[in-house]
Fold this sequence. Notes:
The complex is a heterodimer.
Chain A lengths: L1 E10 L2 E11 L3 E6 L6 H9 L6 E6 L2 E2 L4 H6 L1 E4 L11 H11 L6 H10 L15 H14 L4 E5 L7 H16 L3 E5 L10 E6 L9
Parallel strand pairs in A: 3-8, 3-9, 6-7, 7-8
Antiparallel strand pairs in A: 1-2, 1-4, 4-5
Helix pairs in contact in A: 3-4, 3-5, 4-5
Chain B lengths: L1 H17 L1 H22 L3 H24 L1 H9 L1 H6 L5 H16 L1 H11 L6 H28 L6 H28 L5 H30 L1
Amino acid sequence: MLEVVNLQCTRGDRCLFSGIGFTVGEGELLYLYGHNGSGKTTLMRTLCGLVAPTDGEVRWKDLPIRKQRDEYAAELLYLGHKNGLKDDLTGVENLLVACRLAGVPVKEDEAWKVLEQMGLRGHEDLPARVLSQGQQKRVALARLLLSEAPLWILDEPFVGLDVAAVALLEAVLAEHVARGGMVVLTTHQEVALTSGKVKKLRLGWKEDGCV
Amino acid sequence: MFSAFRIIVARDLLLAMRRRSDVLTTLFFFIIVVSLFPLGIGPELDTLRLIAPGVFWVAALLASMLALEKLFFVDYQDGALEQMLLAPQPLSILVLGKVLAHWLVTGLPLVLLSPLLGLQYDLSTATIGVMMLTLLIGTPALSLIGAIGAALTLGIRGGGVLVSLLVLPLYIPVLIFGAGAVEAEVSGLGGAGHLSMLGAILLLSALAAPLATAAALRISAE
């Protein structure tokens, strides 16, 4: 279980958020929303341990994450705004390196199969730099299909995807949650999740619909 | 733990192979700087033999500096660094892998090419041998120490100049003992003492630099 206690984060003099507390248990999806600049990305990076909070702490299985960095990392999959793809490696190579680095042993034919599932048939062995934005996102998201990590933290995973890919990703998320996985997600799109419990958390000071 | 090290080394070598221009820039920089001195000073063999160790070492230092900028920057830009920070292995191991791959493509070629360049300075075979040995021990230390500076200046505008200011002072011991070993060998004093010091610097930096670099990366990526 992911537990957040009284989390505060300041950037320079500006307080991005404070007093944030929530839990994400097995089979739960937490949907973070808020206007641009409300601190969604910073909160997610704090959850991963990439940013140190000014106050409060993030706990994983009742222990603070900074005390169990490697154990926590093994159970976490984070996909940020940047895809983490190497321009000069092909889709398959990128997927293999990303998975193996995260401690998931993946064979090459599995990687080919997963990329085909992600709708990249015929593009698997092209260097990532010639792929379109949406295709690059698909390569990055292909990791989800191979991951055994219980906790997924996904920052705007739907950006750049077409309708078919959005539906596919929704299905993948629903299946993960149904299996007892946990998801923390931000998105500006409406997503339909059919199974599991969806929690919502709003960040920022503006009311819904205000510019 | 070892597998993560291997994955990073293999990935970075593959990337270097796909993008050879980056590697060749460093190598040609070294060749040109070393070749400029005989052209500028003229064919005074005694003078050339005298300045050779210093010139080779200063050129190696500058070439190593030149290559540093790229060490973490691309990973930082495309998000691969974030994934490395979140890998379930100690970050210092991954850093060590990156530095090794970096040295293999930017440091080792300089070492292998130095005998050929040594001919321009009328160096004897024995001197060239010692020169190669010092470069072989010294350049990995340069890469290791430089990685700290590269990690600290990551994401800072104009980081290239700052990294020189940070790292060059730390390179001075390597320069002194590297060039000193060759000079001592030429003058007949024997360079064993200098070589031992150089080896000690390499060992110390191999132990401490990955830890310092990992800490710096965590700060820079925040």
